[in-house]
Amino acid sequence: MRPALEVADIFRRHGEAFRAAQGGRLLPDQRRVMAAIAACRTATLGGHVERCDDCGMVRIAYNSCRDRHCPKCQGLARAEWLADRQADLLPVPYFHVVFTVPAAIAAIALQNKAVVYDILLKSAAETIRIIAADPKHLGAETGMIAILHTWGQTLTHHPHAHCVVPGGGLAPQGRWVGCKPNFFLPVRVLSRLYRRLFLQRLQAAFDKEELVFFGNLAHLAEPTVFAQHLGALRNVEWNVYAKRPFGGPQQVLEYLGRYTHRVAIANSRLIACEDGDVRFRWKDYRANNKSKVMTLDADEFMRRFLLHVLPKGFRRIRHFGFLANACRIAKLPIIRAALEAPEPAPTVEHADYRERYAMLTGHRIDLCPRCGGSMVEIGLWPRSPSPPRPPSRCDTS
């Protein structure tokens, strides 16, 4: 069922004026994302015509934009990714560690997304690898999935990495070394090493002239000023925290399903778009996750949403250690043997898109909404060169 209000509706109604007002400040990638979301599942992208075999009802199924920033296009991608991960799960506790950056680093990241986000993910993974390999802690090789998020609940820029880590590691002799119950690695030790590794990589990027600075950060282009800037950050605590461990592999999948393909805001959080303002729900984590409502003018809402457009080709979900693509085929069987765990069942391939969608998401898009009969494709619907008209419901709550 389509939500009463979508991000696409806001872009359709207010996007043209926003693009004109922003001018050259709006990056090509941001313009592309706005256009893709506004066109998603409309006549602009074309589609196909379906007819019910039983009652004869005809409907047009418009194509999706498939953009990774689109709130409507993540369902099947998420389900396919989770189905592939099912075979990687181990019968051990899993831990969730979050790595954040200070506001001064977030500001640099906003002007250097590809470089700094890459540093964030690699530094987080390297921190866990080094501390876990230390015989004083675990003395074993770990594996992890790292997921980049760049937003807070109110759409402000807040880059951080969510790391899902099996509770143990592979020792050199092929043994599995489990961690202590309800304890993975010391957070303070992780924080200090993470800070050092991050700042080392950031300084190296500066030395290679991979960073750019403009606006209120233009002064950082001077080497001595940049060095002083980083020096001050070595004397503050960097927030690294561990959440409660998961109950088991199935809970890991449920968690990953909520986090891996999330976008800055889901359509379900939108309340209304009226009189030039957008209202949406958000959770105040500092007030025991209390649900609140925020109102932003449409231009500010779109500006915040577009802060989180990633550079083209950037991988926001990465695998490290024995879960890395180059390692898991060889090392996961060794770990399962050490744990005396059975091999995972082979995955079942579904060639037909609608069958695959139903198997992975539990939603049947091949059934008639009127009578439950089978919908059969009878032809293509051509693309429309004109943009879709703004829905009138964008003016109502």
Can you give a write-up of this model?
The protein has helices at 7-22, 28-39, 75-85, 103-111, 113-133, 187-207, 223-233, 249-259, 298-306, 328-339, 353-361, and strands at residues 47-52, 58-62, 94-100, 143-151, 157-166, 168-170, 176-178, 240-243, 270-274, 277-284, 290-297, 317-321, 375-381. It has a 5-stranded antiparallel beta sheet with strand order 8-3-5-4-12, sandwiched between helices. It has a 3-stranded antiparallel beta sheet with strand order 2-1-13, with no helix packed on it. Helices cover 36% and strands 20% of the residues. The radius of gyration is 24 Å and the shape is globular. It has 397 residues and is of the alpha+beta class. The chain has a domain at 90-264 and 307-339.
What's the layout of helices and strands?
Blueprint: H1 7-22, H2 28-39, E1 47-52, E2 58-62, H3 75-85, E3 94-100, H4 103-111, H5 113-133, E4 143-151, E5 157-166, E6 168-170, E7 176-178, H6 187-207, H7 223-233, E8 240-243, H8 249-259, E9 270-274, E10 277-284, E11 290-297, H9 298-306, E12 317-321, H10 328-339, H11 353-361, E13 375-381
Antiparallel strand pairs: 1-2, 1-13, 3-5, 3-8, 4-5, 4-12, 6-7, 9-10, 10-11
Features:
3-stranded antiparallel sheet, alpha+beta, 5-stranded antiparallel sheet, 397 residues, 13 strands, disordered C terminus, 36% helix
What's the overall average pLDDT, rounded? 89
Query: Which secondary-structure class do the elements indicate?
Result: alpha+beta
Which percent band covers the strand fraction?
A: 15-25%
Largest sheet properties: 5 strands, antiparallel
Overall geometry comes to: globular
